Amino acid sequence: MNPTSHPVTEAPLRFWHRDAVVERHHVRPDRTLLDLLREDLRMTATKEGCAAGDCGACTVVVAETVGGALRYRAVNSCIKPAHAIDGMALWTAADLAQPDGTLHPVQQAMLACHGSQCGFCTPGFVMSLFALYQRTVAQGQAVDTHTAHQALSGNLCRCTGYRPIVQAACSLQANAAQAVDEQRIVAALHQLDADKLDAGKKNANKKNDGDYLRPTTLPALLQARAQHPQAQLIAGATDAGLWLTQGLRRMPKIIDVSRVAALRRVEHYPQHMAIGAAVNLQDAFEALAVDRPVIAPFGERFAGWPVRQSGTLGGNVANGSPIGDSMPLLIALGAQVVLMAWRPVHGKRRIVHRHVPLDSFYTGYRQSLLASDEVLGWIVVPRPRPGEWLGVYKVSKRMEDDISAVCLAVQLQVHEGRITTARIGAGGVAATPARAVQTEAALVGQLWSPDSLQRAQVAIAQEFSPLSDLRASAHYRRQLLGQLLHRAWLESTGHSGVRLEEMA
């Protein structure tokens, strides 16, 4: 492809790497980080595997400043836009050993535990371990098996060498001689921010504001959206990256919402919590699990660690995939979305917003009520009511890091054995994430018994007409809906050994 056939951003891409600032000009807004590293910068330690954010071979580690310290994330470079790491620090598998060849502790652990077989996936595993090392071992914490599995959940090994890799993770020991000089990196990143601010002031009157926009305030985001309604909105780009690598789409102008400070917060109120659209999936699920602990294991199955660290709850909801896992859960919880825009009001432009129930938000396959000048700003989730019971289930071919065949979330309130309220969200069974209103009607007012369960199973099988695809047949999906309702009945009535997490 001729790189001059598409617009290129005027603002340079700048990031910290190997104790220096890397600056690249004329990088297309839709160029991936992996292509930048391998093709432009010749950093070939990072490998391309699936080009879909699925296998983890391309994993790199990025860090940004949060509260004066570095926050490390393992990310899939194959689906990450290169400009998304502007102002961050970057490490690849070639950056860990000392100049004299002394291995980093994660590399030494992989060597000692024989954690590499064919070797193709090894750079990605090493980088996931490096992020784990910086988050835990470097902070004086030990790594247990569960933490190791979570950290490596975004990496696949076709040689099935997982046992020694997990052993390597659990054997990690801190080495002060290999410590990252965080203060120096934080200072360098602060200087990058200051330089960008100065450049923004100098170029404030320029008409061309670039092709990759990174607003940091909510008004700036909404103004950019009003000026560029056809631009592609992204946050973590875990879906948009696939459109680039698998769909071969071009995105001549991108608005990245991930730097908007107001949308990176989880706000708590007496009756609800408000999750900003730029809050990553891991933080969002952790916030939801405080009130509803059953969400924690479901969140771990949503995707592997790098996707949960990059992808955002707002992006998952706005994208509106019928097999997106967060929407059935949020529909069952009665969530609303806050849609925001920069519009004229009484002759003066200002921020306007509207609240839409999530179960009314979707109008068709990947279509919604979101207007061309609007941005999804917040997801508002009600607090649990007394007596609430929640079950949320995902069926997929792999235990983790896989897309659902069917996802079902069931929220019930049962008083003296009778169902008083019911909300059921379903994914993978219609053109949109859906609410099972007919099944809810069949349950409300009934005793929560095998008879009412059977009627609900019949109702939910008739309520949806799922398609057959490579993940499951329509018949199997209808059966799953009924069986997952049965699982909900078993769990809510005190049966044990129902969940996959409970089985050794």
Kindly list the characteristics that best describe this protein.
single chain, alpha+beta, DNA polymerase, domain 1, Uridine Diphospho-n-acetylenolpyruvylglucosamine Reductase, domain 3, 4-stranded antiparallel beta sheet, 32% helix, 21% strand, disordered N terminus
Please tell me about this protein's structure.
32% of the residues lie in helices and 21% in strands. The protein has 504 residues and is an alpha+beta fold. A five-stranded antiparallel β-sheet has the order 9-10-15-11-12. A four-stranded antiparallel β-sheet has the order 16-17-18-19. Strands 4-3-5 form a three-stranded antiparallel β-sheet. A hairpin with a 2-residue loop joins β13 and β14 (367-368). α9 packs antiparallel against α10 (295-302) and α14 packs antiparallel against α15. Residues 1-9 have low confidence and may be disordered.
What layout of secondary structure does this protein have?
Elements: E1 13-17, E2 20-24, H1 33-40, E3 59-66, E4 69-76, E5 89-91, H2 105-112, H3 122-135, H4 145-151, H5 162-170, H6 182-202, E6 212-213, H7 218-227, E7 232-234, H8 240-245, E8 254-256, E9 266-268, E10 272-276, H9 281-291, H10 295-302, H11 305-310, H12 313-319, H13 326-332, E11 336-345, E12 348-357, E13 362-364, E14 367-368, E15 375-382, E16 388-395, E17 406-415, E18 418-427, E19 434-435, H14 437-443, H15 450-463, H16 474-492
Parallel strand pairs: 6-8, 7-8
Antiparallel strand pairs: 1-2, 3-4, 3-5, 9-10, 10-15, 11-12, 11-15, 13-14, 16-17, 17-18, 18-19
